[in-house]
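Hey,

Quick one before I head out. I ran the complex with LZUJQKHR overnight. Inputs first:
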Amino acid sequence: MRVGVLGARGKVGGQVCRSVEEADDMELVAQVDAGDDLETLVSAGAQVVVDFTHPDVVMDNLEFCISHGIHAVVGTTGFDDERLGRLRTALAASPQTGVLVAPNFSIGAILMMRFAVEAAPFYESVEIIELHHPDKADAPSGTARRTASLVAEARRRAGAGPMPDATSTSLEGARGADVEGIRVHGLRLRGLVAHQEVILGGPGETLTLRHDSMDRESFMPGVLLGVRSIASHPGLTVGLEQFMGLG
Ligand SMILES: NC(=O)C1=CN([C@@H]2O[C@H](COP(=O)(O)OP(=O)(O)OC[C@H]3O[C@@H](n4cnc5c(N)ncnc54)[C@H](OP(=O)(O)O)[C@@H]3O)[C@@H](O)[C@H]2O)C=CC1
Ligand SMILES: O=C(O)C1=N[C@H](C(=O)O)C[C@H](O)C1
């Protein structure tokens, strides 16, 4: 499989290049970063592109890949319903092409989201804390947004009532961001990579689900699974769990 990497000089993109080079069934044919010409992907004959760039540029990258029939495996964050809708529209005009958008490629983070969904109906309250390195552009993290959205959906399905919160006076931001009714708190500290806690509370008890990526190596098995799977999944797929038998 001929693979191109967008964001190849970045923290994750660089690691993806090394992992693709080490994979027996893949060939790294293009390494593209800011300022490079996207046409390089076409002239190199890339079949699948992996994108770890920046929320501001990822849509242009994907629209280019889709229009050239190149499958894409996307780790870059910043996706909302409007962006996913634009991808579906672009893919409708290129029906053989597949795009995977995965807010988190680490197996443990995907399981943490799954466990949070399982637990949500049993607890009165739930809040999310995401902790990342200080070079991160977006807040809350894509993983926290996705977790909040999945948990909110699980609570709606279970008919859960509003979460108790007597706060009547506060400093702006003190209660975190509101993602579909779920409070999400973000920390940015040197020394961190990517971490998240989902804390659920009920009468007399709490349940804390915590995941830690201590090294960006944690994302690589998931990225390679995405690369190997995407050509047989045309259209838009959101979440790597769809390729893990957990969808
Ligand atoms: N889904 C997941 O599992 C994960 C997702 N991420 C997400 O991936 C993204 C990248 O993260 P990270 O590697 O830490 O960030 P980095 O800033 O380290 O890397 C991004 C790279 O993309 C380059 N870039 C910028 N614009 C373009 C462009 N138009 N074309 C090609 N390359 C470009 C940047 O260049 P320059 O610095 O010169 O601008 C940089 O080299 C973020 O959105 C992050 O949240 C991160 C980890 C895991
Ligand atoms: O920027 C990062 O580093 C990460 N970004 C993703 C996110 O926003 O959820 C995935 C992981 O948390 C690392």
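The chain has a mean pLDDT of 97.

Talk tomorrow,
K.
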